[in-house]
Specification:
The complex is a heterodimer. Chain A is mainly beta. Chain A has two domains: about 80 residues, no CATH class; about 350 residues, Neuraminidase, CATH 2.120.10.30. Chain A is built from three helices and 33 strands. The longest helix of chain A has 20 residues. By secondary structure, chain B is mainly alpha-helical. Chain B is built from 27 helices and one strand. The chains are: A mainly beta, B mainly alpha. The interface between A and B is large, with 41 and 48 residues.
Chain lengths: ~450, ~475
């Protein structure tokens, strides 16, 4: 009886082991890299990043062994299909580890990639060294109104602002435990704030104030065009809570938007286009230029200078780092995430030339981007996986306007990228963990 | 009897709840199933556990996903109501109450609880309450497991009478409730529209029923676009304003549901996707099973197979749809998307706004022409009173037989009836109305114009909305 029990036990364990591994014991070496998704072959990652997970593009099973050789991780992948008698042993592929440190957290907004409405919106944060994602604030705090445009004071997790729309809405300013809301439309210039940029001194915030509309195309590859009919730049002094319109950046004949500061805060980069009539029908004629304006002692001085652009392209989201301005380049318009042709470009401030950051781009839209606090990493949103749901990519900056191959933000399982029904919006680096402000913000709306 | 009694009551309760559900809430259950979402994904569970009563939500979503299968909704509802009865009865049989009156009402209390839960769930948008009470009853039953069983009270005649009263009362309430019947009609019409069962839509949205529920008329007008009756029957419905012709700008579940289907049927798949996203926003996870399946349908029509695969993979995480989603994934494996040619820009693409006639022109300019779109365009022009444009548009299309209302509009603007081939009947009727009008015989005008475009047009004239109208010049061609 005991013998029967033993035999049954051993058989069960054997069956279990077989079904767990599943891989044929025999492997045929193959001279090519495995075709994996996401494409992590030859990417550069920081030292402190969650484990990269991937799967075979054709859906076959795979397992891998990883070996570290100095600053390179070598992944050896074995793949097989169900029922195969032999597995394929692929050529090991490298993943390079950069010595440049990266900020430990990123923040982003999770929202359905719909058009006019939404259900849940969460401004979330993710620890880069793990898969841990947590809430900073959600729109449950403001009765399901919109929460958007989160911005940190130089990546400081204790100092941030975001807009909370809806009844009693405004711009929420967080300074450690102090949480307050100001409706910018009711003070100073009486303009609503849209895209913000926090001055490196921490004292000022500039906002563009945009009147934004949408039109919908008939069975076009790009289903929607988001456009502005008016936009100006306003400046807020956080010491006095005063808000003023910046006259030279608020011309009636032009649309000024997407402000961004240089590292030292002496220059504001922004985008500006000629204001035209009937924008929906003439949207192909809307071309934003990259501009700059000098800022001294809390004031803009002189006339703004046009840096780059012509009637063949449009510039969005300028972000300065190390003598270069990284921006999104589209054929026209001001909302690149819906533009399949949107790519990331670099503008060399010294040579005054612009060029595409080829290695970062894909056939689908690349859009919002920001630099890490040390300027060694860039994070950006791209729709390259499926064309609609924006996912987050990170790339190492080599210097001289060049980048290493970007990598998709690792998830516990690659399928998470497919199954998540939300887009990642406005990815930003942060220097530490942000507290959960849900309760504090809810109180502002009671 | 005392032991079998509760099982007989349970069986009766099950039978009554099932029959009433099948007769009066069959389509409501199907729509509830469409509006649900249950996915084995991390995000889904995280979001569910962030709500109050997460377990009830989870249980509800799990069961309600199957309501989409005809008759399964009433069946499961009956099962849950019966379970509530049995579990609560189990509890009340074992736990002693300090109040003797409670003991007296043993078994009746369980029937009352299940009946009230049933009524409440029938009137609510979702049957969530049933699952909350089921969980509470389950909890109580578990607690009661540790108590000693009391001697069961005898099922007296008065108890049987009260139980019968509760059950029949609940059944009567649900079957005659105006709100429940109205919701069922809406659900039936919605489902028929989704399935393209136009005759069923027209059977349920009639000119008579539209007097009480004008908001349902857009479904009938959409259906008539397919049955080819729009030009003949539009004004037999009590339409008083152009806004009643469609649900444009209606950002409700109903409006978004209708608009997504309308745009799909007219071939504007981008707008169908737009509205299905809007529709999804009304639900707890910002998505429903229906939205996912429609997104697959619309993206397939657009040739966007990457999105078809994505949504199919998501649906494969739902127990209800996993097998069909897997089949779909197999079917679309390796299918290449229709991609824009290199250098293609959307800047010159036609765009839609919130102006339906303008949107229909844009659709036509984009090369998407359908009979239903053409006829809807003509109807908009009639409803706007833009009869000169109507004549111009009418000339573009070819007609084997001119629909009645179009003849009425053409006669009203004063075209040469022979040139347009307007029927003698319409001409005769128009002449009668014209002469009655000239004699200021308004009762005759009202009687003869009933159910015609003229009735609508005169009404709008009286309202001051239309400037142009019937040409009463005796020298006119007519």
């Amino acid at each position: 009886m005991r013998l029967i029990k033993h035999i049954t036990g051993i058989t069960l364990i054997a069956i279990l082991l077989h079904s767990c591994s599943g891989a044929p014991s025999e492997r045929i070496p193959n001279d090519s890299y495995p075709d994996i998704i996401p494409d992590y072959i030859g990417v550069t990652i920081p030292e402190k990043i969650a484990k990269l997970t991937f799967e075979m593009t054709d859906g076959s099973n795979c397992r891998y062994e990883m070996e570290r050789d100095g600053d390179t991780l070598w992944y050896t992948v074995t793949s097989w299909r169900k029922g195969d008698k032999m597995a394929t042993l692929h050529k090991p592929f490298p993943v390079y580890i950069s010595a440049d440190p990266i900020d430990p957290y990123i923040a982003y907004r999770l929202i359905e990639p719909g058009y006019e409405s939404w259900h849940n919106i969460v401004i979330a944060q993710r620890e880069l060294a793990s898969y841990k994602e947590s809430r900073i604030v959600s729109n449950r705090a403001n009765d399901m109104g919109c929460v958007n445009c989160h911005t940190f004071d130089s990546g400081n997790p204790q100092r941030m602002l975001f807009h909370a729309r809806g009844k009693g809405g405004g711009t929420v300013f967080i300074d450690e435990d102090q949480v307050r809301i100001i409706n910018l439309a009711q003070v100073g210039a009486q303009r609503q704030g849209t895209y913000p940029a926090w001055h490196p001194s921490g004292r000022y915030v500039v906002f563009s104030s945009n009147s934004t509309f949408q039109c919908f195309t008939v069975n076009e590859f790009q289903p929607i065009e988001v456009y502005d009919t008016a936009s100006d730049i306003i400046l807020m002094d956080l010491q006095t809570d005063s808000v003023m319109l910046v006259p030279q950046l608020s011309l009636e004949s032009r649309l000024e938007t997407f402000p961004a500061w240089s590292e030292d805060g002496s220059t504001l980069y922004f985008c500006s286009a000629e204001a035209i009539e009937n924008v929906a029908n003439n949207r192909g004629k809307v071309h934003y230029r990259l501009m700059s304006a000098r800022f001294e002692d809390g004031q803009f001085v002189g006339e703004p200078e046009e840096l780059f652009g012509d009637d063949s392209c449009s510039v969005s989201f300028p972000r300065y780092n190390d003598g270069y301005v990284l921006f999104t380049h589209t054929a026209f318009g001001t909302f690149p995430i819906w533009h399949g042709e949107a790519d990331l470009w670099m503008y060399d401030v010294e040579s005054k030339e612009a060029f595409p950051a080829e290695i970062l781009n894909s056939e689908k839209a690349e859009s919002y981007h920001s630099w890490s606090s040390n300027g060694k990493w860039v994070i950006f949103g791209s729709r390259r996986l499926d064309g609609r749901y924006t996912r987050v990519y990170i790339a190492h900056y080599k210097g001289n306007g060049e980048f290493d191959k970007p990598f998709l933000l690792p998830q516990k399982n690659f399928k998470h990228n497919t199954l998540r029904l939300k887009s990642y919006n406005i990815p930003e680096f942060i220097k530490g963990e942000v507290k959960d402000y849900e309760k504090a913000v809810s109180k502002l709306f009671k | 009897m005392k032991n079998r009694g509760k099982y007989i009551i349970a069986a009766l309760l099950f039978a009554v709840v099932f029959c009433i559900g099948a007769l009066f809430q069959r389509y409501t259950a199907i729509i509830q199933g469409q509006n649900s979402l249950f996915l084995f994904t991390g995000d889904y569970f995280r979001e569910t556990f962030a709500t109050s009563w997460p377990l009830s939500h989870l249980l509800e979503s799990f069961f309600v996903q199957f309501y989409e299968i005809p008759m399964v909704g009433p069946l499961l509802t009956a099962l849950i109501v019966t379970l509530i009865f049995l579990l609560y009865n189990f509890f009340s049989q074992r736990i002693s109450s300090p109040f003797p009156i409670v003991e007296v009402f043993q078994i009746v209390d369980a029937v009352a609880l299940s009946c009230f839960s049933w009524i409440y769930a029938s009137m609510a948008e979702t049957p969530l309450i049933l699952f909350k009470i089921l969980l509470i009853s389950l909890g109580l039953a578990i607690v009661a497991l540790f108590a000693k069983k009391k001697e069961a009270a005898k099922l007296k005649i008065w108890k049987i009478a009260v139980i019968a009263l509760f059950v029949t009362g609940s059944a009567l309430f649900i079957s005659i409730s105006k709100d429940i019947r109205s919701d069922e009609t809406t659900a039936k019409v919605r489902y028929a529209t989704y399935k393209g069962d136009w005759n069923k839509v027209l059977d349920n949205v009639t000119p008579q029923s539209s007097i009480d529920r004008p908001e349902m008329m857009p479904y009938a007008f959409l259906a008539m676009g397919f049955t080819g009756e729009l030009g003949d029957r539009l004004f037999t419905y009590p339409i008083k304003n152009i806004e009643e012709f469609d649900m444009e700008g209606l950002h409700t579940v109903e409006g978004n549901y209708f608009n997504s289907l309308l745009n799909y049927y007219m071939g504007n798949h981008n707008e169908a996707i737009h509205h299905i996203f809007q529709y999804s926003c009304h639900f707890p996870h910002g998505m429903t099973h229906f939205s996912l399946s429609q997104l697959i349908r619309y993206n397939n029509s657009l040739g966007n197979y990457t999105m078809v695969r994505k949504y199919a993979q998501i649906l494969s995480r739902s127990p209800r749809y996993s097998s069909s989603a897997r089949k779909l994934l197999k079917r679309f494996e390796g299918a290449q998307d229709s991609l824009p040619p290199a250098g293609h820009l959307s800047s010159s693409a036609h765009t839609t706004t919130n102006n339906p006639p303008h949107d229909l022109i844009q659709l036509s300019l984009a090369g998407i022409n359908s009979r239903i779109a053409q006829e809807r365009f003509l109807c908009y022009l009639m409803l706007q009173g833009s009869l000169e444009y109507f004549v111009e548009a009418f000339k573009i299309f070819k007609w084997e037989r001119i629909p009645r209302h179009y003849e009425e509009a053409l006669l009203l603007i004063g075209v040469n009836p022979d040139e347009f081939g307007i029927s003698a009947g319409s001409q005769r009727l128009f002449n009668v109305i014209t002469s009655a009008m000239m004699q200021l015989d308004m009762p005759t005008v009202d009687r003869m114009a009933k159910g015609t475009y003229w009735e609508y047009h005169f009404y709008k004239q009286k309202e001051g909305a239309f400037e142009s109208g019937l040409d009463l010049d005796p020298d006119s061609k007519l």
